[in-house]
Structures are given as structure tokens and as C-alpha cells.
Design brief:
Layout (H helix, E strand, L loop, with lengths): L10 E6 L9 E3 L5 E3 L1 H16 L11 E9 L9 H9 L9 E10 L5 E8 L14 H15 L1
Parallel strand pairs: 4-5
Antiparallel strand pairs: 1-6, 2-3, 4-6
Helix pairs in contact: 1-2
């Protein structure tokens, strides 16, 4: 389950599927609200399913991280982006907040037959912890949202 200790070792995983770019993957509704496009929503669903199999969910990592990611796209026109990938890692509970990723190495590659993201996460052991904001855990966020909702009634 979750831990405030973070991770002591390197975490490696591969998420299959073509990763759409978050900023290019927004739809604006008639109401003016902006939502993720169908391709981005499909990627998030796929990530969540794969994160269960890979046992990435609810690890609640809460330490400064270095991320190395090689993103294989299915076409030459794709822009290199890790925004949606980082959001998915936060949403599945692997990391408490994607702002904890303080160092990144991103590599763009082409693989038309097998688009994917190969990710390596490792703790930054000598990071100054005073530079890291205090983030609520997934459970703490849920309680906070429930209290806020009950206050409105």
C-alpha cells in the first residue's frame, strides 16, 4: 500500500499504446469547459488498466524523483511530451504529485508497430526536502473533497 517513505530502488515499467499530447488533446464543450480528447481519455483508461497489472497503483511515492522516459510514437509527426504520462502516474496513485519529478530525461523514438513509453523512476537521495511542498495523499484528498462537498449542503 502507500508509504510516506517513498522508494529505495529504481522502478521500471512499460506502458503500451500511442501517447497523445496533453495540450493538443483537449476538446472545448459548448459550455466552454475544456476536457481531454477521446484519444487522451482512451490513453488514460489504458494506462489505468495496465497500472493494475504492473502493480503501480496506490504506491503513493512522496519523494523527489528522477524520471527517464523513452516514448515510442507511431508516427513521425508526434511531439515529445510527458505531461499525460506524468498525470497518469499521479492519477493511478504511483506518485503523490507529478511535481515530485524534479529531473527528467525524455527521448523520442519511432515504432509504428509498438508505440509505448518505457519509464524509469528513481529517488533523488541528495535533494533538499525543504524545496518540496507538502502534498496530500490520495486518501487525504478524498476526505478533503468529501468535507468540502458536505459543507456546501
Amino acid at each position: 500500500m502507500g508509504t510516506d517513505e517513498g522508494i529505495q530502488q529504481v522502478i521500471r515499467f512499460t506502458i503500451t499504446g500511442n501517447q497523445p499530447r496533453k495540450s493538443n488533446s483537449r476538446q472545448t464543450l459548448k459550455s466552454g469547459k475544456s476536457i481531454k480528447s477521446k484519444s487522451a481519455q482512451d490513453y488514460v483508461k489504458s494506462f489505468m488498466s495496465q497500472s493494475i497489472v504492473l502493480k503501480l497503483q496506490d504506491r503513493d511515492i512522496n519523494v523527489p524523483l528522477r524520471m527517464e522516459a523513452t516514448v515510442y510514437y507511431d508516427n513521425k509527426l508526434s511531439d515529445l511530451s510527458d505531461e499525460l504520462l506524468c498525470d497518469c502516474m499521479e492519477e493511478c496513485g504511483l506518485i503523490r504529485n507529478d511535481n515530485l519529478i524534479r529531473e527528467k530525461e525524455l527521448i523520442w523514438k519511432l515504432d509504428k508497430d509498438n508505440p509505448r513509453a518505457e519509464v524509469v523512476l528513481m529517488p533523488i537521495n541528495d535533494y533538499i526536502m525543504d524545496w518540496i511542498p507538502k502534498y496530500k495523499s490520495k486518501a487525504e484528498k478524498a476526505i478533503w473533497k468529501l468535507k468540502k462537498k458536505l459543507k456546501k449542503k
